[in-house]
Amino acid sequence: MESFIATGLIGISLGTQYTLLALGFTLIFGILGVVNFAHGGFYVMGGYVAYYCNVILGLPYPVAVLMAMLSMAALGWLFEAFILERVIEDHQATLMVTMGFYLVMATAILMIFGAESPQFPFPVTGVWRLGGIYFPYANMIVLGACLAAIVFVYWLVYRTNIGRGMRAMSEDLPVASALGMRTKALFPFAFALATGLAGGTGALVTPILALAPHVGDSVLAFSFLTVILGGLGSVTGATCAAFIVGLIEAYAAVYLGGSKGALTLFALVLIILVVRPQGLLGREVRRS
Amino acid sequence: MNNRVPKSLPAEIRPSLFSGHDWIALAIVCLTFVIPFTSTNPQVLSQTNLILIAATAALGVYIMQRLDLMSFAVPSFMAIGGYTVALLSMKLQLTDVFVLAAAAFLMPALCAIPLGALILRLKGVYFVLVTFVLTEIVQLLLFEAGPITGGSNGLVGMPAVKIFGMELWDNPHVLLTTCGLAFVSFIVTSVFTRWFRSEFAAIETNDVLAESLGLAAWKYKAMAFSVAAGVSGLAGFALVNMLLTAHPSSFAPMSSVNYITYTIVGGKASILGTLIGALLLVSATDYFALSGEMSPGLFGLLIIVVTMVARGGVVGVVSGLLYRLAGQSPPLKNGEQDLGVNGEKGQ
Predict the structure, then answer these.
(1) How many angstroms away from the CA of A103 is the closest CA of chain B?
(2) CB pairs under 8 A between A and B
(3) In this structure, is residue A288 part of a structural domain?
(4) Which residue range(s) make up the domain with B174?
(5) Helices (H), chain A
(6) Which of A27, A209, B111, B160 has a C-alpha 20 to 30 A away from that of A2?
(7) Which residues in B lie closer than 8 A to residue A260 (C-beta atoms)?
(8) ipTM for this prediction
(9) Could you say which residues from 259 to 278 on chain B have a Cβ atom under 8 Å away from some Cβ of chain A?
(10) Does A286 fall in a domain?
């Protein structure tokens, strides 16, 4: 029973991480209609920026996380404003451009930091114990930080004028533009918010999991899973789905072992896509 | 008043089976048959092999693009075709190239029928994502089904294939096999996409409207998905025949990005674009490999530049230039053909 509860805690911890990744991914799709294949790249690069700031420059870890978020937000803003914006009307072109940018980012990381995984330990060690339940402090801190970031995103999206503008554009872009919403400003902002979240997640999570140039591939796959399950473009759906994915992954890894957990998840998502293509809380299908 | 609908178009305006681009693509593939007989340079043989395998695999993407569907499932069907060949040759000692090619085409095509029934209801970005998920599932299954697929070790030590009892074991003969498989794939794709071009064009333009006008869109989508799977299976055969190994890493999910890139960069509107895209990008990869670690980044940069500068792909841009030089008006969309009054796509 204690093992079951401990696994559940790990699942919730994973769920919060996936929520942050999925929120960014789903925001970009919901507002810009873009499937961002570079999302995993921003996650990895965020991890490396935090590593550089914390381990190489010796800055405190929270500052390193903040730097990762800000730098990835800035990179995302520049990418959207100067490259993606030029092909935003052509969805296949946006796929190609984001794929290309992912390759550029992965190569840049490889060139600067090398192929070896660097030593990037989480600054806090130790384990919280309650009876037979164990939960690492690192996971607890990451859980808290991710929850705070999720609350911030919800506040931004649902309680501010910028968020209302983004949601209006996501609902009906032509009408929102006619009513005075500035797509030229809000598109890059939404993209920067999403990539900043991905960078922040990378900075928080890679010290616990792994930091290597190509971990973005699996991150992209899990982001896909989460947003498909939750429904593309649905912020609440992505949040619910992220916790479902996190819990299934944790329990499947413990009780099934090997890659059967991932296989279970992928099969589940395939069934959901077939039975309910719009996901748990998704909306109408966009064309690719 | 005569209200009869003609059963077929008059001979003088009946569209030809192959377009100009189809003929050029087939001619280029035919020319590659010369290489095994004229070159012993391993670099040339290997590079030609890779280009033809890439172009054959990209045909799977090209066929689905006729229906405005972007498929990431090519590596899945390549894996089914490749592993089928490996299993047949290693477990049943079936090495005849014709039997293996038929199996490599039919097995993925048959698997695609029930899969297509499930996923072809989806379109747009959901189709993109479900095919990506499918590729991930197939990859995990290759690792999990160890007793059949060899798990993470793969199936190593395939015997050489035979044609009329003669072993095709050395590099020129392996390339000859690949040339044959590529030629068959290009013929099948050309005939298939040209034969049903009007139906595909209607579905690509507006599938709901096409269906409401009486076109059984599901039937054409299922056929296209099945043929695309079969052609991908032939590419899988060529790949495992070149490597003499069937290994999960040869069919990695992210390799689907390459096949899509070949199609889009070359020009998704014509079969020639697929071949040109594979030719340019595989050569570019080889050239960039000289730059070591920078190679994927340069490849990514090339994708971005071509996507932004040449929106109709290389073939689309060149076609547009030729139209202008000839004093004719270019197609409506750069690189894509407009439907004429008789349903013939202008080339």
Answers:
(1) 5
(2) 143
(3) no
(4) 20-253
(5) 2-32, 39-51, 61-82, 91-113, 137-159, 161-171, 173-178, 183-205, 216-230, 235-255, 260-275
(6) A209
(7) 144
(8) 0.84
(9) 260-261, 264-265, 268
(10) no
